[in-house]
Amino acid sequence: MNEVRNLKILVADDTDSDRLILETIVRKEGHQVFSAKNGLEAVNIFQQEHPDIVLLDALMPELDGFDAARQIKHLAGDELVPIIFLTSLQDTESLVHCLDAGGDDFLSKPYNRVILKAKIKSFNRMRGLHNTMIEQRDQLSQHHQRLLQEQTVAKQVFDNVAHNGCLNASNVRYFLSSLAVFNGDVVVAGMRPNGNMMVLLGDFTGHGLPAAIGAMPLASTFYGMVHKGFSMSDVLREINKKLKSILPIGLFCCATMIDFNFRRKRIKVWNGGLPAGMIYRQDGTVIPMRSSHLPLGVLPEKSFKDDAQFYDLDIGDRVFMWSDGIHEARNSDGEMFGEERLLQLFEENDCSQSAFDEILLGVKNFIGSGEQDDDLSMIEICMQAPENVSHPNYNFNQSQQMAQVEWELRFEVKPTSFKSFDPLPFLLNILTEEPDLRGFSGSLYTILAELYSNALEHGVLGLSGDIKKTPEGFTEYYTQREKLLNEITTGFVHIYFAYSSNIEGGSLTLRVEDSGEGFDYSARQGKELLVTGYSGRGIGIVEKLCKTVRYYGSGNMVEVVFEWVNND
Amino acid sequence: MAITSTVSADGSQVTIYIQGRFDFSSHQDFRNAYEKLAKTPSRFRVDLQGTSYLDSSALGMLLLLRDHAGGERAEIEIVNCSQDVKKILLISNFEQLFSIQ
Questions:
Q1: Whole-angstrom Cα distance, residue A137 to residue A75?
Q2: Regarding predicted confidence, which is higher, A303 or A210?
Q3: InterPro entries attached here (chain B) (predicted)?
Q4: CB contact under 8 A, B53 and A529
Q5: When comparing pLDDT for A357 and A367, which is higher?
């Protein structure tokens, strides 16, 4: 090991001869020496020179070594300044006294040069270790500070995404607590354009950062879709798909989602993996809403199930949702709170307004001094008349005005464009701008496609479907279609839509008229849908999808009515 | 409306994938996917994972495939249908002719 040199060493001894001997030994080892004749001087020099090691005589005038040691240790603070007592005392009590006063070691007189040298070296090594430790401690604390700062900023971003909905509505109460800055639980609530409130409580496996990362896409998908009027099943499917694609195996989100229809006083509930929420009726009955699905982010899109339960409520009935934090809250004996205690609280409650507080208090009292080991989240929504549901971003009147929507659209495809222009995607886009129709895009496409291709092919082009009876004919039909389209210079296809909807549901009337000769539609009536045969199936499908299909004029005009009911 | 297909290593099974809308415009590509194979496969899969919509001419094409594959003896699976697509297939009673998943 390298020689230890050039340390600053304070030597304090009131006996001149002893001090001189010590100074000489230390200086010969290559160190810088500061001398003091008593304890007071020693403390003063320490303050001015900040020596690395202090050699202190125990018995000195003015201030003895013990008190000087205490003061020096105090002044040194976090820094390790080894103090070695120089003493002729040999009794155990005196030596213990030296160490109690803050001394790190002692050296007996007369001095042994080799031992002194070894001690200085050893204490210098200890100083090094100590400094490294302090440095690392400071680094750790800095890192921790930075992490907390980052999390605080991230939490602000998260809260802006997660809580921009209607959690502050007059009929909603919620409580979220967490172990870390981030919470494994997420609560989102938003108003649909039809005045329904959609609420989702989710509990990601784990907590902290990984859980919060999953909550971000969940919240942004939720708000993006709910405000546009997507149905609960669309929102659930989309969130499930998103979480499935981004979360690693083993990380998923237990969730309950409820759509509150204040107009019909009805709720639609989907529960995937969360403890049963409770409907607390005015008459005191409690109805559990149990999980019947897998959590979000587990199943692939195709296997995802979105079937939900409906419950009819009365004004003033309350709906409670919670994460398993409430059920799994433990008291100091390690016992869990459990559903029975929760039901007990409902039984003891005699004023439904205070049920929320009583449950929270009940759980907190139960935990007592026990450790809270999961996120604790709870939300209560009260069934209200639509006009009594208010929050800053939602206006009941505005939503009522949206109740009735009616429009018509006339559209004509000109002969120059039959060949190059496909009106179907264009028209479908217009239709699916209506939130009500979004869920039916597949059916609407098929209806449109059948009516348009019939009008174009049989009407405008005059092609007969009979050609398609054989495989060769099938190809022939489309070859002829291509050829005729290239030659066509006259004709038209008129398409007319009449849309009408209110919050109960609505209808879409679709009329398609072509410039062709029409056909004898009396023969069509009551014809069953064929299973085999390459063609002739189209209008049969339309008949199954629509409420009515009627032909007019010479058969060159068909009108179908598509209807739907809003059942959420 | 891209149509692609893959054949299993031993040539016994062909899988046809249809992207986007499945209608008459994919007619030629759809036929090519099963007619121009070196060996006639014994099993067929039509994967509609990427199919957004279909119309009655697509149903006609599925029947053409069925005839090509041996009619009553044909082994054809239609897989990964979306809800919308499945609805159209079921309205047409196609579950009597194909195995639909």
A1: 20
A2: A303
A3: MlaB-like_STAS, STAS_dom, STAS_dom_sf
A4: no
A5: A357
